[in-house]
């Protein structure tokens, strides 16, 4: 597994991170622990969670898993979305809902909508920050986290000087090694323009449908030394088919080198992962990519894409150009 440094934070980790959003959410305890174990065995050291993931319990499972491994792991967590603990009957119904989705994936959106009602976003106060980091540290079974992000933050949070000062004090106390903001590209742009202390790391969605955040970072004079993490590298479950269709179209296009066309082949899942992840990581402004990968075969393909890509840097550059042409 390739190792990277996140900006000038001095923190090093695997370039492929493990997104923990599905731990004890879409995936049950057994499947979650199995996926965590496979990620660790593959050399993944970056684990990205949040106070709200798994209805507030993802961090606890991650902390349980990392017991005895903490000194070799890099933990990223977030605050600002508060999880409302569901009533007992809903908690008991979660396994049945997971099973139903596996049989009928089309109902995923309905279940996600219902689950979304159990979260309150935009909770960026000093009180929420202090309570959140206290709970995160306790559930993660650690006395510090490597990264603490403002979660799905609006640009207005950058004007909350008191909150940012409180985050800086957490860094000074050693409870947080580096603070950051997680948000949409326009929020990343605002953060780069203002560059408020103590924010030193940016996390944002990045895929072939939206490459605006890394382009903003590459063009900003304030980005020097900022750490970067990309998420949603496939654009979400519903856009995987579109990714595959775009690559298939490139493979069939005139003027494509015969060797590259052969490598693209039928655009199976392994090729899809190889292209999507390496398109992102080949961008000079991105340090790490953090997909959610609970299925072991998905994880194996992602790890192989990072460790032994079938595409050369020149081929990735050609594919990047062709992808953007197809999108324009």
Structure description:
It is built from 14 helices and twelve strands. It is an alpha/beta fold and 328 residues long. Helix 3 (58-65) runs parallel beside helix 6 (126-140). The longest helix is centred in the N-terminal third of the chain and has 16 residues, at 88-103. The relative contact order is 0.13. The model has no long low-confidence stretch (mean pLDDT 89).
Descriptive labels:
12 strands; two-stranded antiparallel sheet; 8-stranded parallel beta sheet; 15% strand; 328 residues; alpha/beta; TIM Barrel
What is the overall shape? globular
CATH names the topology as TIM Barrel
CATH class: Alpha Beta
- CATH architectural type: Alpha-Beta Barrel
The DSSP helix count reads 14
**Number of DSSP-assigned strands:** 12
Q: How do the helices and strands follow one another from N- to C-terminus? A: EEEHEHHEEHHEHEHEHEHEHHHEHH
Rg over C-alpha atoms, rounded to the nearest angstrom = 20 Å
CATH homologous superfamily designation: NADP-dependent oxidoreductase domain
Q: Major sheet: order of its strands?
A: 3-4-5-8-9-10-11-12
Helix content: 40-55%
Low-confidence segments, given as residue ranges, are none
SS-based class: alpha/beta
Strand share of the residues?
15-25%
What count of domains describes the coordinates? 1
Question: pLDDT average, as an integer?
Answer: 89
